[in-house]
Amino acid sequence: MTETKYFHALQILADNCTGCTACVRVCPTEAIRVRDHKANIDPYRCVDCGNCVNVCRFHAIIPLSDPLEIIHKFKYKLAIISSSFFGQFTEDISYQVAKQAVLNLGFDQVAEEAAVTDFMINIIRDYIRKNRDKRPILSSNCPSVVRLIQLKYPSLLPNLFHQEAPMSILTRYFRDKISKEYGLEEKEIGIFLIVPCIAHVTAVHQPEGAYKHLQDGAFSIGMIYGKIRDSLKELQNNPPSIETYPQGLTWALSGVQAELVDCEDIRTLSVNGVENVMEILSRVEDHYLDQYDYIVLRTCTNGCVGGCLNVENPFVAMSRIKKMIKEGQGSDFDTSELYELYQKGEFAVVPLAPRPIMELDKDIKKAIQKMKQINEILTMLPGLDCSACGSPTCYALAEDIVLGKASIDDCVVLLRRHSKDSEEE
Amino acid sequence: MQDSAVAEFEMSEYWYIKPNFEEKVRDFFAQKREPEVVLELDIPGKDFNIAGKGSSELKNLLKRLGVDSEILRRIAVAGYEAEINVAAHSQGGKMISNVFDNLIYMQFMDNGPGISNIQQAMTPGFSTADDLVRELGFGAGLGLPNIQKNSDALHITSALNSPTLVEIIIFF
Q: Which residues on chain A are in Cβ contact (under 8 Å) with B65?
């Protein structure tokens, strides 16, 4: 395996882990095993989808994000808020109030992902039209989707939209702008994302494909939500006047985003939920979905509103955001400079390398031998896929045994059958 | 008239071998090697929820062996189309995938009713699919031509009121 150390924005608290295997069963890349009654995550296989965080009833898998205090290390502090943030509040709390409350946490300026949605839609369309040889183009905003493709569908890597995500585009734009405006050095400016999922936290700490340093930290929407709750009431009595971009909030909803890209010469498809994403990617591999020009893929339910760091249910959050889009009157964000940078290729990202996890061996003859061994062991296993051994399925256990990571004695069902047999003797 | 009626009940066969693959295909049948891994799956007639499972399982198996992605795609497409054919046109059958270290040999055998004119069935756009099948979005008459396009060798044996055997070879 590779020597690269892969960081992930989650942590297993061994003291809390009961070894229940709930996480093992929901992991889409079979990255988790329970060994010695404790869950372990294989960092090479993890795609930060957050399924294990959501399913753990024992608070044993904890999402990691940065503590708010780190902003004080910088002279100028900018927060960039993910669009799903504004779906987290009850309807009596206005968009302006929620945004002002974030500013009051100690930032000098608050920017929004939603401000560049229009710009993103335009460059996505431009990219689709300029890359006619590749169909369909796959959205690259969701870091979990990108990693999933690296791991399980590497032949689709060239189909990814090879441009930065909106929050990274804003980071580059503002770092330059603030530095010029305030005469600050780039490293004196702290730029932080307020994000809905651990995949975005991981991406901030371990960016893939970026040509240069981007953000200085990532805060969880849930954490920020907790910190601003008290100040919301006060602000409601004294409503601030602050620019908002309700029309751009579509970025948080995968379906609406696809509808916006869709036009006369571009046909789009929207897919969310990690199981659906995998099924669709498998069909894209076989060229069954070539009739689509662009596919929006998000591993969370309904898109980023379903991220595991949000506080509100993804359907309720989606409904609120749709209401804001319908009723809100947005400000204009001047994107002319962004278009210039895009034309110069400033937002292009490095093509990503595959990280295949499927192959049993590089040599097909050896791979076949291993597969035969796996099949042989599989005939001995009970086929219940109960996960009691700590591997997700009987097949995974057989594979673990052949790869030297487990033993057949780990099968609890077999053990019980054997002990019954010997009792009868 | 009588002659053709008799002819309909005779077994007929169809061969396609991609140019320059004749010798490799002949060798394969002559050697009669045992497959390394075999994947067997029942395909119930008219059940479009299950049809497609076999080729998707096969693709996952071949991914584990590190088969090249372009070749994988051809196998998945040919396998999927053949599976759909069994589900759409027959009373059910099975798919047997024989994996060798340099090729895949897929067999699709069904329980009838057979193909009366294979040459006609190979014509793009020709289809005998019934309304149920068409309603589900299948039956465009591109199944067999698509299989041939993606195969290195294709062999069809059939007759009216008899089982059909479709054999596909794709080299890695």
A: 359-360, 364, 367-368, 371
Residue A393 tokens read as 């399925």
Q: How far is CA A310 from CA A62, A155, B29, B168, in A?
A: 14, 33, 60, 50
Q: Pick the closest to residue A169 from A297, A335, A330 (CA basis).
A: A335
**Residues pairing with A12 in the sheet:** A61
Contact A360 B66 (CB under 8 A): yes
Residue A115 and residue A117: Cα distance in Å, rounded? 6
Chain B residues inside the 8 Å CB shell of A371: 36-37, 61, 64-65
CA distance B72 to A370: 20
Sign of CA dihedral A253, A255, A258, A262: negative
Quote the longest CA-to-CA distance of chain A.
86
Enter the DSSP assignment of A136.
Answer: S
pLDDT at B142 over 80: no
Helix (H, G, I), strand (E, B) or coil at A179: helix
- CATH fold of B36-171 reads Heat Shock Protein 90 (3.30.565)
State pLDDT tens for residues A164-200. 999 999 999 999 999 999 999 999 999 999 999 999 9
Low-confidence ranges of chain A (pLDDT < 50): 1-3
What residue ranges do the domains of chain B occupy? 36-171
Give CA–CA dist A401/A397, Å, rounded: 6
Tell me how far apart the alpha carbons of residues A217 and A79 are, in angstroms, rounded to a whole number: 10
How many angstroms separate the CA atoms of A70 and A221, rounded? 16
CB-CB: which of A282, A358, A362 is closest to B64?
A: A358
How many Cβ atoms from other residues are within 10 Å of residue A181's Cβ?
Answer: 10
Tell me the C-alpha distance between A137 and A157, whole Å.
Answer: 10
Name the pairing type of β-strands B12-17 and B153-158: antiparallel
Query: What one-letter code names the amino acid at A175?
Result: R
B160 DSSP 8-state letter: T
- Which chain B residues are Cβ-neighbours of A288 within 8 angstroms? 77
Q: Which of chain A's residues have a Cβ under 8 Å away from the Cβ of B99?
A: 368
Q: Are A74 and A32 in contact (CB under 8 A)?
A: no
Per DSSP, the three-state class of A80 is: strand
Q: Determine whether the interchain pair A286/B36 forms a contact, defined as Cβ–Cβ distance below 8 Å.
A: no
Q: What DSSP element (H or E) covers B97? A: strand B93-99
* Residue-wise pLDDT tens digits, A346-378: 999 989 888 888 889 989 999 999 999 999 999
Q: Please give the interface size between A and B, counted as residue pairs whose CB atoms are below 8 Å apart.
A: 55
- The predicted pLDDT at position B8 comes to 46
All domains of chain A in start order, with CATH: 1-64 (3.30.70.20), 68-343 (no CATH), 359-425 (1.10.15.40)
B22-33 tens-digit pLDDT? 999 999 999 999
